[in-house]
Amino acid sequence: MKLLEERILKEGKVLSGNVLKVDGFLNHRIDVELLNEMGKEFARLYKNDDVNKILTIEASGIGIACIAAQHFSCPVVFAKKSKTTNISEDFYCVDVDSFTHKTTNKVIVSKEYLCEDDRVLVIDDFLANGCALRGLIKLIKDAGATLVGCGIAIEKGFQHGGKEIRNDGIRVESLAVVNSMNADTGEIVFG
Amino acid sequence: MKLLEERILKEGKVLSGNVLKVDGFLNHRIDVELLNEMGKEFARLYKNDDVNKILTIEASGIGIACIAAQHFSCPVVFAKKSKTTNISEDFYCVDVDSFTHKTTNKVIVSKEYLCEDDRVLVIDDFLANGCALRGLIKLIKDAGATLVGCGIAIEKGFQHGGKEIRNDGIRVESLAVVNSMNADTGEIVFG
Fold first, then answer.
1. Rounded distance, CA B80 to CA B78, Å?
2. Cα dist. B116→B94, B136, B172 in Å?
3. DSSP code for A18
4. Distance, in angstroms, between B179 CA and closest chain A CA?
5. What is d(CA A13, CA A6) in angstroms, rounded to the nearest whole number?
6. Nearest CA in chain A to B33
7. Which ipTM score applies to this complex?
8. ∠ CA B77-B78-B82 to the nearest 5 degrees?
9. How far apart, in Å, are the Cα atoms of A134 and each of A106, A159, A168, B51?
10. Judging by DSSP bridges, how do beta strands A172-181 and A188-190 pair with one another?
11. Strand-strand pairing, A91-98 and A103-110
């Protein structure tokens, strides 16, 4: 998606440790007009797939998911990072490693809000090693719901997550794929 | 706001410890159509106030803020709960107690995204004792920005937060004010 790539080139900052900082429009300050264009594009890509629920994970996926959901006329469910290790039977639960924070979180979704009848589009801001996405996919599987596919804002194509998940036969649509980036020069190359 | 009150009566659950659970449409599963009506109402209430930024706090405020921001044609900034105690000079920082989780979080906003020129509307899902709201208000003050007012989805009128903040001369608009609720009977009375 040209608009997103241009914005990344203009405002994204490449930090050491393969971190791409897009705090100016996606992760801290949010440009809702850009999100709306992204939502339209997800709706175009998945227009024939009868999506009736969007699943994301707190926190930075929520804005993208909510605005995209307006184009699907469906609700959003966001998986929560649980503070307790003691998860009740009312929740589906999965462990997710965080690439950015180098931690592991228990991520939960209430059984009430993810059901067999659901045709779920997973939306998230980043796809790198795929830990968060695989966690959300497992929650959908545990619920017996149908995974329609994934909609990602920015995929780091040089990490293995997207490739592995697509190899499992899962549809992954990324609006911008970064093929390489360089913390020394600040260069970002798209796929 | 009638629509929100009706939804709270229909789906809200009163739990012990003054907890009102609205997971079915606001805090876990999100009804984006309802959020859109709420956003329109905030825009109507603050239509003459030249709002050019919406400030909220992760996680559950983000969806409401993003959809409301579409009606103000302005960006959203969400304050982040920081994992580190060591905050760099690039951030405004404040301690916020969580009513729900009985914890204290350091909450931060990048100095880059909150400026003197900003006319800020604070949006959040709940107002109870007012800790989160007071934290966000302090961040705005520290930045030298102008606080236009606050837009709250659900205020617990029987707790002291809203009253105290209004007594400080700050405009607070809550779309639903719960005057009393009863965990034994499930009764919810609006103001």
1. 6
2. 18, 15, 21
3. T
4. 28
5. 13
6. A70
7. 0.96
8. 135
9. 13, 14, 11, 39
10. antiparallel
11. antiparallel
Size of interface A-B (CB pairs under 8 A): 104
**Angle made by CA atoms B91, B71, A173, in degrees to the nearest 5:** 75
Q: Where are the alpha helices (DSSP H) in B83-154?
A: 131-143
State whether A32 and B69 contact (CB < 8 Å). Answer: yes
Give the strand pairing for B13-15 and A103-110.
Answer: unpaired
For residue B167, the SS3 value is helix
What residues of chain A score a pLDDT lower than 50?
none
Tokens in use for B75? 């960006």
Whether B78 and A31 lie within 8 Å, measured CB to CB: no
Interfacial residues of B (vs A; Cβ cutoff 8 Å): 23-25, 28-33, 35-36, 58-59, 62-63, 65-67, 69-70, 73-78, 80, 83, 101, 103, 109-110, 112-113
pTM score of the predicted model:
0.96
Cα–Cα distance measured from residue A16 to residue A184, given in angstroms and rounded to the nearest whole number: 8
Query: Cβ neighbours of residue A85 under 8 Å, at least 6 residues apart?
Result: A106
Q: Residue B98: which pLDDT band, with cuts at 50, 70 and 90?
A: confident
Amino acid letter, residue B86: N
Cβ pair A45, A144 in contact under 8 A: no
For A126-150, the pLDDT digits (tens) are 999 999 999 999 999 999 999 999 9
**Alpha-helical runs (H) found in chain B:** 2-11, 32-45, 61-72, 131-143, 161-167
| Chain B contact probe: residue of A13, A72, A78 with most B CBs at under 10 A | A78
A152: number of Cβ within 10 Å: 27
| Beta bridge partner(s), residue B177 | B155
- Please list every residue in chain A whose beta carbon sits closer than 8 Å to the beta carbon of residue B77: 28-30
